[in-house]
Design a protein that fits this description.
Length: 77
């Protein structure tokens, strides 16, 4: 999400999470679906690879802290 502030990106992902939570998965024969996500903002002098690693760390923090949530790199739940 180029040119998007970290808080705005996290809010967008949280809207996606809410839609996943509220979707009628039973129509498809699926009991429940959850999603975890990590987001990271650009940091001066960081490569794209480092940015992806930051988002990946945030994703695993989301999973460790109970799943079905979004965590911003360096931020709280």
């Amino acid at each position: 999400m180029p040119a998007t502030e970290l808080d705005a990106a996290k809010k967008a992902v949280e809207r996606i999470l809410e839609n996943v939570r509220n979707y009628n998965w039973q129509e498809l024969g699926i009991e429940k679906v959850t999603m975890s996500a990590g987001v990271a903002g650009t940091v001066p002098n960081k490569s794209v690879t480092e940015l992806i690693e930051m988002a990946d760390k945030a994703l695993y923090q989301a999973k460790r802290s109970g799943k079905d949530r979004c965590v911003a790199y360096g931020g709280e739940g």
